[in-house]
Structure formats: C-alpha cells, structure tokens
Design goal:
Bound molecules: copper (II) ion
Number of domains: 1
Largest sheet: 10 strands, mixed
CATH topology: Immunoglobulin-like
Helix content: 10-25%
CATH superfamily: PCu(A)C copper chaperone
Shape: globular
Low-confidence stretches: 19-25
CATH class: Mainly Beta
CATH architecture: Sandwich
Strand content: over 45%
Order of helices and strands: HEEEEEEEEEE
Number of strands: 10
Distance between the termini: 42 Å
C-alpha cells in the first residue's frame, strides 16, 4: 500500500472512530462549529473570534461571556451600520434559541478579544470558553486563521 493510501485509511479510521465516540457519549447540550480566531499582523493586541453556536437543547441558552488564556478579556460584540458608518458595540448577551443556532461572522456578531500577549499566528490553536446563563459552560479549541485568508461573506 502506498504511503498516501495509508494516510487516507488512517484519516478515515480517525473520522469513523470520532463519529463512534460521539454517538456513544451523551450528546453535548451545546456545540460550536466553524470556529476560528482572526490572525492579525504582529503588534495587534485586539482581535475577534467567529463561530456558529448550536443549541441541541429544548431550552434557550443565553451567551453572556467568553474568555481565553491568550486574552486578558473578551466581549460579545455586534457590528452595525449607523449613518452609513460601520461601527461595533458591545452586547450583554446573545440568545441561542432552543434547537437552533447563532452565527458569529465577520460583519455581524463576534467575540472581541482584548489584551493579547503575543500576536496569534496562523496554525496555532487556542482555547475559548463560552459562558451561558442557565446552560453549561462550553470550552472549545479554535484555530487561528489569518485575516488574509478570511473569506468575504
Ligand atoms: Cu468588536
């Protein structure tokens, strides 16, 4: 078997076992998909993180905060157009509806991360912890994706 074929088998095996694990464990109440942290040029101490938060429960979950070891603080923000100007503001909470999801995307809701100790480089992965009111805290690992590779949406 060629090396590349072996690699494919390896990846398939990992994927299958990951799926198996999921079905075996009690399903998590909240999941996050398509998460990434925006990687910016060196010297920046503020960046943003984006993701889709999925609520698999039959009750609403209110996102009220976020934290990361690489940031001194994090806030939920919303972009808005005011008088033709793009601006953003902090929001106290963001409801993830029962059985639904909320997307944090460039130009919309996002997690603002402040006080970065070092610039985040593409390929790194960092933990983000999301706090909910009335629902369990959720920790995820998000890759850093350079702003240069960000897809316009
Ligand atoms: Cu912001």
């Amino acid at each position: 078997m060629s090396l590349s074929k072996k690699l494919v088998f390896f990846i398939v095996a990992i994927t299958l076992s990951a799926c198996g694990d999921n079905s075996g464990v009690a399903e998590s109440s909240m999941t996050v998909s398509d998460a990434y942290i925006r990687g910016l040029p060196p010297g920046q101490t503020v960046t943003a993180a984006f993701m889709t938060v999925n609520n698999h429960q039959d009750k609403d979950c209110k996102l009220v905060g976020a934290a990361s070891p690489v940031a001194s603080s994090a806030e939920i923000h919303e972009h808005s157009h005011k008088n033709g100007k793009m601006s953003m503001r902090r929001v106290d909470s963001l409801v993830v509806p029962a059985g639904g999801n909320v997307s944090l995307v460039p130009g919309g809701y996002h997690l603002m991360m402040f006080g970065l100790e070092s610039s985040l480089k593409e390929g790194e992965e960092h933990t983000l912890t999301l706090s909910f009111e009335g629902c369990e805290e959720l920790s995820i690992v998000a890759p850093v994706q350079s702003v240069l590779n960000e897809k316009a949406k």
